[in-house]
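Summarise this fold before class:
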Amino acid sequence: MRALTGMFEDMCADNMNTHTQSQYQYEPIAKRLYQALDAGGEKTALVVNKRNYSYSQLRNSVFALAKQLTELQVERLAILAHRSFEVYQSIFASILSGTTYVPLNAIFPEEKSAFILEHSQSSHIFIGPECIAYAIKMLLLHPESLAKSEVRIIMSVSAAMQLQDKLQAQEAKVESLRSLRKLIKSRLITVPDTDLQATLANGDAANFKGLSAQPCHPMHILYTSGTTGQPKGVVISYHNYSCYFTSLMGMYDFKSSDVFSHFAELTFDISLQDPLLALVFGGTVVCPSKIDLLTPNKYINQAGITIIQTVPSLISYMLKAKILEKEHNDKVRLTFFIGEALWYHLLQSYHRAYPQSRLINTYGPTETTVWASHYEVDTQTLESMDSTNSSIVPLGRPFGCNIFKVCDEQGNEVPEGTTGELYIGGEQLAQGYYHNELKTKEAFVSLHGEPFYRTGDLVSAFNEHATQDGFHAKAGESFTNYHYIGRQGDMIKVHGYRVSVYEIEEQMGKLTTVPLKVLAATLCDKGINETVIIAAFECDDDSEINKLKPLLNGKMSFYMQPKFMVATPIFPLNANGKVDRKLLTAQVIEHLSATKQVHFLP
């Protein structure tokens, strides 16, 4: 990566929106975080597990741990903590000490976390007290690898005692635990408990001055879901995130009075954004509990949330649970959606519940740090839309230093309005996949001598004019708007016609208000393999399906009509809150195989 001096300014000159370009100057993310915490104060910075932590308390805890990470010369820190104070403490301490952190997720299978720990070559692992039982199961999976890796274990004093007690209590049942306990004891490094650190007035907190990492040094390695094989570790540098955060700060009107939600899991690329924005702007971030996630409306209301960042599936969940129709909240100011296609009819339901919120659709793969584009939906236009409008909200305009190109299969740019694969370049572009040269070469390519990431997303780009002021453009301003068509793998050929499952989903969505997902599968009938379309509806019975069947012939082309329609009470979600299409497809195929006596290829 080129030297930092002049790079950001050169790249941003042509790409950053002029009305946000000059508000904030580029600064390393560690410097911004240090300054936010160092100021201290008694205002609440963080609420987690129903407990308030002031800026001073958070500073003391984070600085103390950061100082210890620096003294220990921790190179790469795996973090196993879940919706606890230790999540924030360990991540912030990693950033301030220039450490690369690797988030693990206690709701993932232990095998996946064990793979990530080993593959990332983490030198240390920080374990929160709420994840002790999970950690034991994970470490037991590969004791030989653990012994060879020499990974050190960092825990609070009380958590370390709990760990040793649990291991000792189970030794009689599991012989291998005895050797694991001895190994852990030899690798264990303890840090003061949270309560002790939070009350320190001087000492480690006062003496710590922060340590800025080199711009190209990895800030974190985020492992993707691995739906097509083993997870891939996306390497995001300190410079990548600093560029992104600088653009973000100048784009929206965040305030010190704002209260930020924090729905995202630690392993989701958007997870760091909420707490960092809260601290840098002097606001508050509130971590929801497991119960809060089941009743998100109560969490939003009781915490006084003003800034929400979530996946569109949250709207579907609130509609299914009949929460949204009863909700009316005027305090939410900004809502950002990311991670999935956002449908206008879902957004209409959300707007009725949160009428004062500005609505922003954002887009960006993990390989481009977090967001790469955004589009604010005009609420007046939204209110005037037909309630059956089931088109997808555009991905919008690239922001900051991101560069978008739409290309054909040979990597050549296509004309305006033509569907092609989206390539993204610019200063938010990841360094590649950790220890996976083959996948890196496949996904990160060169266009005209500049690095780009092949997203696999199919889009069409159109030159448009903004009708009203929005975050993505001023009224009357011309901009290129990118519209989502689907994933490359979502393009299927049915009866000789090439079509996107999202296009079918959009057309069927105009005929029903019930959430639906269109899936593709290969039906094997008498030795003949045929690609078929399956529509899954999130409902309890076939009543909606029976209403819909007579409408299809007059509303949809024959090749777009599903061969099977299935009622599914609840769509499965992945760890990031998105609908898990792979798991849903497997469930639907299993149901059809049992009820229709048909056979599908795996």
Q: What stands out?
A: The radius of gyration is 25 Å. Residues 1-22 have pLDDT under 50 and may be disordered. The first strand starts at residue 44 and ends at 48. The CA atoms of residues 308 and 444 lie 32 Å apart.
